[in-house]
Structure formats: structure tokens, C-alpha cells
Design brief:
The protein contains 5 helices and 7 strands. The protein is of the alpha+beta class and 207 residues long. A 7-stranded antiparallel beta sheet has the order 1-2-3-7-6-5-4, covered by helices on one side. The protein starts with a helix and ends with a helix. The model is unreliable at 20-34 (pLDDT under 50).
């Protein structure tokens, strides 16, 4: 009797497993590995002139690609760094320490307009820093990033493929953008960010 019960359970488990494999193969085939986000050669910045651009190379496992641009407008120069980071918690303060050895002694000013960004000063340079999310508005803190992931990524149309291992449940990518200038024109940094953000966001969320 026990052997018959064991055989029945074994056959049920085997049958369910086989059906699950067939469903996955038919409806949720493994997707090809996504290529890294292609960071644009130039940025859409009206009234600014591109002076130079170069690739950023980082020896970090979460770093995919990056580029630094120098733009000029009259006597004002601005540096813009764009990094594609994956498998991340989205905490920009950690990025500052890991990638630029910047440990902020005071809390940056976090502001909101169509998304979060932060402004701070370090060694006579003014900075604006933000993480463009694959879905949802831009963020600066890990809490903001996690909120976006829970809100936009945990959906029925993602949960079913995730169960069958066809995709990750959360899209933990960040397009980290940082602007900096020698003068203390924070309003100028914000204006440039507002010009830059919509187009970069559109490109990144299209991936």
C-alpha cells in the first residue's frame, strides 16, 4: 500500500514537472541576453556646444558602460557623466563613494520635479546627481528606487514569466547621470538637467 502511494505521488510530481517545463518552453522561452544600454554619442542640449566626450571605464562588476561629456555655453563649462549600472539597489550616495570616492559630510539637497534628484557641493564644484529608472521617475535614494521597483515591476505579466525563469522579477538597472560645474550656479545645473532628463529617460525606458 505504501509503495503504491509513493508511486502515485512520484508520478504526480513528475507529471506536474513535465507540464511546467513544456509550458515554459512553449510560452516563455529563454530570452537572449540583453546587450548593454547604448549610451548616446551626444546629448540633446539646446544652446550648448559639445567640446569633448570619452568612454568611462570602471572595474566594478555592476558597471556596464559609461561616457563623460564636456559642454560649453558662453563662459560656462559643464561636465556630464552617464553610467549604466545593473543589479543595483539604486542608492546614488553609494555610487558617489564607490565610483568617485566622494563621501558627503552633509546631506545633499534632494528635490523633486518629474522625479527626484540631489544637489550638493564638493571641493568647489557643484553637482546634480540622479538615477534614471527603467520604469518610473528618477530617484536618488535606495528607498525611492525600491518603491519604483515594487510599484512598476511586481505585476502579473512579470510574475508568471518569473516563475518559469524567463525573466527577472525586478528590473534593477539604473542610468546614473551626474552634472557638475566649477561655479555655484545650481539653478543652471537644474535647468540643464530638465533639458537633458526627458530624452535620456525616453531612451532608457525603451530598452
Amino acid at each position: 500500500m505504501k509503495n503504491d502511494r509513493f508511486k502515485f505521488i512520484y508520478i504526480c510530481v513528475l507529471t506536474v514537472g513535465t507540464i511546467a517545463v513544456l509550458i515554459k518552453a512553449h510560452f516563455y522561452p529563454n530570452k537572449p541576453t540583453k546587450t548593454a544600454f547604448e549610451i548616446p554619442q551626444t546629448l540633446n542640449l539646446p544652446n550648448w556646444s559639445l567640446q569633448s566626450s570619452s568612454a568611462i571605464n570602471e572595474n566594478q562588476s555592476n558597471f556596464q558602460s559609461g561616457k563623460i561629456y564636456q559642454y560649453q555655453q558662453n563662459q560656462t563649462a559643464i561636465d556630464i557623466e552617464v553610467r549604466h549600472i545593473v543589479n543595483t539597489d539604486g542608492d546614488v550616495r553609494d555610487y558617489l563613494q564607490v565610483y568617485q570616492s566622494i563621501a558627503l559630510s552633509t546631506s545633499p539637497t534632494v528635490r523633486y520635479k518629474d522625479g527626484y534628484y540631489a544637489i550638493f557641493t564638493h571641493q568647489n564644484r557643484s553637482y546634480l546627481s540622479a538615477c534614471i529608472n527603467p520604469k518610473g521617475e528618477s530617484t536618488f535614494t535606495g528607498v525611492q528606487f525600491a518603491r519604483n521597483r515594487n510599484l512598476y515591476d511586481i505585476r502579473l505579466d512579470r510574475i508568471v514569466p518569473w516563475i518559469f525563469s524567463a525573466t527577472s522579477l525586478r528590473d534593477e538597472r539604473c542610468l546614473w547621470v551626474q552634472l557638475s560645474t566649477l561655479n555655484r550656479d545650481r539653478e543652471g545645473l537644474e535647468k540643464t538637467w530638465f533639458d537633458l532628463y526627458p530624452n535620456l529617460r525616453k531612451q532608457f525606458t525603451r530598452e
